[in-house]
Write a structure and sequence with these properties.
The protein is of the alpha/beta class. The chain has a single domain, classed as TIM Barrel. The chain contains 14 helices and eight strands. An eight-stranded parallel beta sheet has the order 1-2-3-4-5-6-7-8. The chain is globular, with a radius of gyration of 19 Å.
């Protein structure tokens, strides 16, 4: 079953790229598909799979790109020259982030079924962060994506307080990467569930989404869901598994969703790393009540993300 009109779908977690080549480079060989992440490719899959909307959670790996640029600086720079060069690298990386945000918003304006969430980075100062949020909101941005593991910050890092404050004031949801992922123990610690309570309690009107169900830490997610009404989740990457992480059985997948709360979890595919059509079909097959399937596949995202 590829598409089922009784179970419409919103994919709350996809990534898109200007070209297939850029998408494949971004995946760094970790994808479970041969997809390249272009908007046209995604739209074809959405039509085939009965996916009405998809949320583009595009971000820019500023930390990794900055490291690569800084490594190329001449070793004989004076302290003043090095400071100037480092400042120039920072400006260049922020410029790349801003251009990616603008492209994401352009794609969303051209294709209303694609929703733009923008990327931000802790290397930006408070004025830059707030200005970027306000500008991209005017251009059609509907939310924010933060990737603690990749961007090397803890969710409760005070540098992000202006982001949370502005997002809360504007009603913009924030989708966070949460849990281990594929970048090693330090990256896993950045995105560990224990770093979220301070954010959730300090900003009680902020809609916070922990992607990947903390990479399978269902007990921690359930505890957070019980304690904080403003935290929600998506299930991308943890139901169907990877080469290194076996897929959950139907019974265990259904139990995990119910443990956290089927009213709190949204379907997400993490396209192009995973296949949104096959992943949505898997949710439809789980031993859940029809109302629970509709909630996970569609209704929760519509409500939580104000779509």
């Amino acid at each position: 079953m590829i598409s089922d009109p009784d179970f419409p779908v919103i994919d709350a977690h996809v990534h898109t790229y200007r070209s297939r080549e850029i998408g494949r480079q971004a995946m760094m060989g970790t994808g479970q598909t041969d997809y390249g992440g272009t908007p046209d490719e995604l739209l074809e899959l959405m039509a085939r799979g009965g996916i009405h909307k998809a949320v583009m959670v595009n971000m820019t790996p500023v930390a990794d790109m900055s490291d690569a640029a800084l490594a190329k600086l001449p070793a004989d720079l004076s302290p003043a020259q090095r400071t100037e060069a480092e400042d120039d690298v920072r400006r260049q990386m922020i410029g790349r982030l801003q251009r990616r945000n603008e492209w994401t918003c352009e794609v969303a304006r051209e294709h209303p079924q694609l929703i733009a969430f923008i990327g931000l980075d802790p290397s930006m100062n408070e004025d830059e962060l707030v200005a970027e949020i306000d500008l991209r909101r005017e251009r059609g941005g509907r939310g924010i994506k933060l990737q603690p593991a990749n961007q090397r910050f803890y969710p409760n890092d005070r540098r992000l307080w202006p982001v949370y404050d502005r997002a809360q004031a504007l009603g913009l949801p924030i989708i966070f990467h949460s849990g281990a992922g594929a970048r090693g123990p330090q990256a896993a610690d950045y995105a560990h569930p224990r770093h979220f309570p301070e954010v959730l309690s300090t900003f009680p009107r902020l809609t916070a989404v922990m992607a990947h169900l903390a990479w399978g830490d269902f007990a921690a997610c359930a505890d957070l869901a019980s304690a904080y009404p403003n935290v929600f989740f998506d299930c991308c990457g943890v139901i169907n598994g990877t080469e290194k992480r076996p897929a959950l059985s139907d019974e265990k997948a259904a139990a995990a969703l119910r443990q956290v709360g089927t009213e709190r979890v949204m379907f997400g595919s993490d396209y192009p790393w995973y296949d949104p059509v096959l992943d949505a079909a898997r949710i439809r097959r789980l031993p859940l009540a029809d109302a629970e399937k509709r909630a996970v596949l569609h209704d929760n995202a519509q409500r939580i993300l104000a779509l």
